[in-house]
Amino acid sequence: MNTPCPPVNFVVNGEPVRVSVPPMKRLLDVLREDLHLTGTKEGCGEGECGSCTVRIDGELVNSCMVPVLQAQGARIETVEGLERHGELHPLQKAFLACGGAQCGICTPGMLMAATHLLAQNPNPTIAEIREGLAGNLCRCTGFIRIFDSVIASIAENSAASIGQESNAR
After folding, report:
1. Contact (Cβ atoms closer than 8 angstroms) between residue 51 and residue 36
2. What is the pTM of this model?
3. Hey, what domains does the chain have and what are their CATH numbers?
């Protein structure tokens, strides 16, 4: 006799969700299979590559290492949550413009790590960018285009801020 799994309730990208899945099912699998949020990728399945990076209550985590039960009551942000009202996030635009996304496996994790970094430090040095993205591996770009993408996003945000200040005068 199968007993039903108790529901797990959490918020994903601002939307409340309730899933009844085995409590030890990986959050990565729940996001991809049950919630159809396939932007988060599985690279290694061992918490080493960062492709499955999401934010839980504002902290970066490898979703392949988190049982869904640990998400009970949490606020989760995935790469899909970066887009707002049909508009790509400035980092997503910069990744496209600078060639920071190639095969696409590492891109969601890189975007989540860079977003987290820029939320903490809106004007990081290249050394701080390298450190902020250190938990994410890329086999295609050699990291230079990814770092260039983050720098371009910072420049775009700075230009937008200056434009807003000028319009306010």
Report:
1. no
2. 0.89
3. 8-81 (3.10.20.30), 90-163 (1.10.150.120)
